[in-house]
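Morning run. Coffee first, then this:
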Amino acid sequence: ATIALRFFQTLGTLLIIGVVTGAFLLCYAVVYIQTSIMPNTYLDLSAYTLNENSVIYYTDKDTGLYKELTTLVGDTNSEWVDIEDIPEDLIDAVVAIEDKRFWTHTGAVLNMFFGMRDTFGGSTITQQLVKNVTDNDDVTVKRKVQEIFTALELEKNYKKEEILEMYLNVIYLGSNCYGVQSASQKYFGKDVSELSLAECASLAGITNNPSLYSPNASVE
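And here it is:
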């Protein structure tokens, strides 16, 4: 009986120590997030500008109308396109591949902390947008935590359509193409609004591995 009593006393002591330690770590985490993470979570998407291509026009002598002469590609091949001009097939394909619950979640997932692999994938479209816009891809826990809380804040300040529109205009799609419009012109020779269902599927599939799945991969 004495041995059993000592066992349960020791077990109880260890349990109390564990609870106190857990509470201390939780309080530390809360304070850390409030002081080091939250002050840096605001992201103004309007402050982000694309390094867009420049189009040169000339005046047609016969009609007097302006016609496109050539396009000067910047350091990165990018051209803004409004979400209204992006085919629904392409939007659906990208969401299905990158973030199936994009329209319903709050911006971020906690897979990295709980080891879940089949929830949303590695990160949401919103988290990927944060990484692309900030150019911060450090492989650290602090960077990941910052990304998660920035994504949560982003979804409070912007509509899903605005987030998706920016994402589709900055995502890298191989061959120095950033955004679906420049990629559509590069691979298919047409505006993204003119893509067929098959072309939309092909373009969306590039996101998994641009160097491997781009239509020009075999010749790059």
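The radius of gyration is 24 Å. Good start to the day.
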